[in-house]
Amino acid sequence: MGNKPARPQKDKETVLLKIVPPLDQSYVRWLFRDLERIHGFAPRNPKAIKPPDHYIEYMRLNGWLDLDLDDPDLSHLLK
């Protein structure tokens, strides 16, 4: 007797089967075309997105933000 930990019982009744149900071929073709259209999409004129301030601060703390010191937009900051 005593305080012995109980052994986990193995579940011998679990049976895993990998069965693929029959698929409609027209549905499969439609799904393939739809996925190809979605994943092949690329915008023509993507606009720059400014990340949230806490992302910028995190990147700055880890040294992931590199500045181009010759950038004319930053020249007034580096005088």
Describe this protein's structure.
There is one protein chain. With 79 residues, the protein is mainly α. The protein has helices at 25-39, 53-61. The longest helix is centred in the middle third of the chain and has 15 residues, at 25-39. It is flat, with a radius of gyration of 29 Å. It comes from Oldenlandia corymbosa var. corymbosa. Pfam families: AtTam9. This is OLC1v1004711C1.
Features:
single chain, 79 residues, AtTam9, 2 helices, OLC1v1004711C1, mainly alpha
Radius of gyration: 29 Å
What is the structural class? mainly alpha
The coarse silhouette is: flat
SS elements, strand count? 0
Number of helices: 2
Strand fraction band? under 5%
How would you characterize the largest beta sheet?
none
Tell me the span between the first and last alpha carbons: 81 Å
Overall residue-averaged pLDDT value: 78
Poorly predicted regions are none
User: What share of the residues lie within helices?
Assistant: 25-40%
Reading the helices and strands in chain order gives HH
